[in-house]
């Protein structure tokens, strides 16, 4: 293994895996760096110099496709309370997924695998939908899912793909042509965190509770959507809950910006115009015509970028609350749609110390160091 062939600086590579998926001889493998992020590594002894990897990279190429322009913005949630409460925002992902599955299609999104490693998978049946639900705040491994998606599309199956904005562009570039039976969904993305930092956080909690973990549930709405917290269930029957201002993983992510992927700090895909059909997000600061409606079970922002998006929204209309809204209002409270977050001043310090320091202690120490300034 040598340097990656596409000669892309690690600060800008988003790890979308379009290059490893397109390589006809599997000369590119995604592998973890010291910080726990996946990068492409290239084996020059196998490479046939076809340069497909250079052509699909979303970072080194300007987008070939004309970016879609916004059509409509909505506030929405699932009318199914169980789905809404189990979801991160208003459960619109699940409603879209159920519709595609009912059409005989398949759905690709991120799920926890063994050891809570986050990977993209593809499901064909409703009973597997719960695995894809909820935001996992680490970068998901794409593996070779783009290849499988292409196969399904060529078999004329509907496919719903949900991923970060960079993964959506990675898939689009990999596919090279537009498919009528593909629905691309991205979300407003603050940035993805290191799987290594997440593992250290879980290990620290397992030590504290002296138990293995059964379930991780970010943005749990026990205290309401605006007061979300992290809930972790342990195999010994105990559970941990902490709100976003106290949970060390969220403090390191949202307050100190310690372990996001370097490329997220200069994300090329920040824009209200997207390559997706639909952008989902939390509708922070939502104001509905009827103020008595309960937004606290979670409210989604939907930005529909294409006619295809409007068509599927129309198809799920009877299962959701839907109210037309203004994009300007939505974005004012969610600047991550258009701006990258700067890396925290203790980012390098975190990765240096996390090898030898307990995660929870380290976050407390960094909080103290910041407070003293
Ligand atoms: C890393 C990350 C950062 C985000 N940042 C913001 C933000 O700044 N502002 C905002 O308003 N919303 C953000 N979101 C989106 C938001 O949390 C919800 O995912 C979105 O509103 C959809 O919610 P839902 O209720 O419709 O469905 P949910 O059931 O919550 O569906 C989540 C969907 O996202 C996919 N997904 C989950 N984790 C990942 C992952 N790590 N990588 C790729 N796909 C994943 C799942 O497969 C599923 O399809 C972020 C999400 C993630 C994963």
Automatic annotation (TrEMBL):
Single Gene Ontology MF annotation: iron-sulfur cluster binding
Pfam families attached to this UniProt entry: Fer4_7 (PF12838), FrhB_FdhB_C (PF04432)
Record-annotated 4Fe-4S ferredoxin-type domain positions: 4-33, 38-65
Keyword annotations: Iron, Iron-sulfur, Metal-binding
UniProt entry tagged with the keyword Iron-sulfur: yes
PROSITE patterns in UniProt: 4FE4S_FER_1, 4FE4S_FER_2
InterPro entries (alphabetical): 4Fe4S_Fe-S-bd (IPR017896), 4Fe4S_Fe_S_CS (IPR017900), FrhB_FdhB_C (IPR007525), Polyferredoxin-like_ET (IPR052977)
UniProt keyword Chaperone, yes or no: no
Protein name as catalogued: Coenzyme F420-reducing hydrogenase beta subunit
Protein source organism: Marinisporobacter balticus
């Amino acid at each position: 293994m040598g340097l990656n062939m596409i000669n892309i600086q690690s600060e800008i590579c988003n790890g979308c895996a379009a290059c490893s998926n397109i390589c006809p001889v599997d000369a590119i493998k995604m592998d973890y760096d010291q910080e726990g992020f996946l990068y492409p590594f290239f084996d020059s002894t196998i490479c046939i110099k076809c340069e497909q990897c250079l052509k699909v990279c979303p970072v080194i190429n300007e987008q070939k496709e004309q970016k879609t322009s916004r059509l409509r913005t909505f506030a929405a949630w699932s009318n199914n309370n169980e789905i809404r409460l189990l979801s991160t925002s208003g459960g619109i992902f699940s409603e879209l997924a159920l519709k595609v599955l009912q059409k005989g299609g398949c759905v690709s999104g991120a799920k926890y695998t063994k050891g809570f490693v986050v990977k993209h998978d593809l499901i064909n049946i409703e009973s597997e939908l719960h695995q894809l639900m909820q935001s996992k705040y680490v970068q998901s491994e794409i593996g070779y899912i783009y290849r499988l998606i292409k196969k399904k599309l060529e078999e004329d199956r509907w496919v719903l793909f949900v991923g970060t904005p960079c993964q959506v562009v990675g898939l689009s570039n990999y596919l090279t042509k537009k498919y009528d039976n593909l629905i691309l969904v991205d979300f407003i993305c603050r940035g993805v965190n290191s799987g290594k930092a997440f593992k250290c956080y879980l290990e620290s909690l397992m030590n504290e509770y002296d138990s293995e973990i059964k379930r991780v549930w970010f943005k749990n709405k026990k205290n309401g959507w605006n007061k979300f917290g992290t809930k972790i269930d342990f195999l010994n029957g105990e559970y941990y809950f902490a709100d976003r201002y106290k949970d060390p993983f969220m403090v390191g992510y949202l307050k100190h910006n310690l372990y996001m992927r370097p490329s997220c700090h200069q994300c090329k895909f920040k824009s209200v115009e997207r390559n997706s059909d639909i952008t989902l997000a939390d509708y922070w600061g939502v104001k509905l015509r009827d103020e008595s409606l309960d937004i606290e079970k979670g409210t989604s922002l939907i930005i529909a970028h294409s006619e295809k998006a409007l068509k599927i929204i129309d198809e799920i209309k009877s299962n959701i609350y839907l109210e037309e809204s203004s994009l300007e209002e939505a974005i004012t409270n969610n600047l991550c749609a258009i701006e990258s977050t700067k890396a925290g001043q203790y980012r390098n310090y975190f990765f240096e110390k996390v090898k030898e320091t307990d995660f929870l202690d380290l976050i407390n120490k960094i909080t103290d160091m910041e407070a003293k300034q």
